[in-house]
Amino acid sequence: MDNVYNAIRNGNLEGVRHFLEKNAGMINVKDERGSTPLLLATYYGQRDIAAYLLDKGASVDEKDGTGNTALMGVCFKGFTPLAQLLLQYGANANLRNSMGGTALIYAATFNHLEIAKLLLAHGADKTVKDARGQTALEHAKMQGFSPMIHLLEKP
Question: What angle do CA 111, 126, 112 make, to 5 degrees?
């Protein structure tokens, strides 16, 4: 399994293909941190590998050891093309991690406006509160992100 994770980290799509041709059942297997190949690919910004894994049946909403999904991770990091890809494959914009955070809360907290727009277009719930009782709007206000605040205040 280490070989496929190394191939993902290095952006080696052919290495990932080769591994999964021989080990198709490993597509959703988790490493010691709870990451699947898709979670790792999105974490490293590997869009082509993520698309390949999704085409091969990777679970789009699988969670890592702390309850984060691939969509949450790309919202945190600001990987808009990956957010588009995951949503295209049906990622649930309203799943919550162990701290109650959602993809929209991460997009708002880190001021990724285009991702926030995508999430809202795919049904993200602006009213969800995290474990600290704060919504995405409240996170944006704490950071002073005016365009994000404006977006999240729209009815």
Answer: 15
